[in-house]
Amino acid sequence: xxxNEIYGQKAHRFIPAGAHTYSRTDEVFxxxxxxxxxxxxxxYAWDVDGNQYLDYGMACRSVTVGYGYERIAEAAxxxxxxxxxxxxxxxxxxxxxxxxxxxxxxxxxxxFAKNGSTVTTAAIKLxxxxxxxxxxxxxxxHSFFSYDDWFIGDTVMNCGIPEEISxxxxxxxxxxxxxxRKVFEEYKGQVACLIMEPTESVEPKGNFLQEVGNLCxxxxxxxxxxxxxxxxxxDLLGACKYYDVRPDLVTYGKxxxxxFSVTALGGKRxxxxxxxxxxxxxxxxxxxxxxxxxxxxxxxFIETVNVYKQLHVTDHIWNIGxxxxxxxxxxxxxxxxxxxxxxxxxxxxxxxxxxGKDKLPSMEYRTVFMQxxxxxxxxxxxxxxxxxxxxxxxxxxxxxxxxAMRVYSDSLNGKAEDYILGNVMKPVFRKYN
Length: 433
What we know:
The chain is an alpha/beta fold. Helices cover 40% and strands 13% of the residues. The protein has helices spanning 3-14, 58-61, 70-81, 91-103, 116-131, 149-152, 163-166, 177-186, 208-219, 238-243, 269-272, 295-311, 313-334, 363-375, 391-413, and strands at 37-41, 44-47, 52-55, 109-113, 135-139, 169-172, 191-196, 222-227, 249-252, 263-267, 341-344, 351-354, 378-379. The chain is globular.
């Protein structure tokens, strides 16, 4: 047996689903994907058998500079040597809070945590405390906000969630301002907050984000923007800056510390300080975690901001993204497959769509393409570009795309199953295994 097979079996024996994130499990990758990664560096990953991959997953989009980037790693290590934690608030905890508040004009106060679900759920709790209302309105088209009941109970994977909790989350459609007003009217005076990403695979049309913000003001609803992915990628100040929109509360994570475990909830002081020690106010148990302000991650966050400023990281991500997207589109046109194989979304975070014969997105045909990319040493579950991706990596990738496109084209003329080595990739959100 290979080490991949051995460790893959161990992973499933000791860990439910074989990984600590569902988007890292075997079922969402082709059969020839590595089972277990040994180490990473820059924009490359090596599995336990020593096979090297050019990585476009970048640890669930959390690494935006590069794996093991020396300046950021050393900043984290220096905080480890400071003890990494303390009995009271640490100096770097205060420095990190000041860094974020000084950086983002619409953030007056901040609470740090270790994962995105913690801060989005904290935002929901704050909104309910601030408004005294119970209903949550969330964007139907945006794929993930939290592993907590208020969101998971509103998905197809709602096993274990009481119906009473699921019923308190309502939906609206992205780029459809009428659907927002409709739900606000139907539950008038009962909605605590609206939560959405500024954008996912579809960009806002017209002034959609601004109109949502205006409706939230009109109906007394807290406007929450989840910048877990868009923050520190669209712009150093996030998609809020890029699209010129101002939320009441905002959440960050992923690239804010180049892969170190740091997330943040920030926003208006009048809302945020409900989680504080204001005299005479009812207490709100906001976020209280032993490791939420771990020195290591916050040191990495501060240095990541410095690196972004000095190296113009987001400009690089946009530029490399455009070159990669343009190249992929050109190859699709060469094969006359531009209606079957195309890219949506912004160049800094492109969404690759692979269709079947009916021109609809297909997991079977996506499996064919991703499988062929892996044969060429490209790990591309999606496209997450980092500063470490250069024109050299773009050239390597496009060469692999051209080879994979040839096989994908052949599969469209035949049957996808004849080209798939093992399992068909599956989406995370589905009712049954």
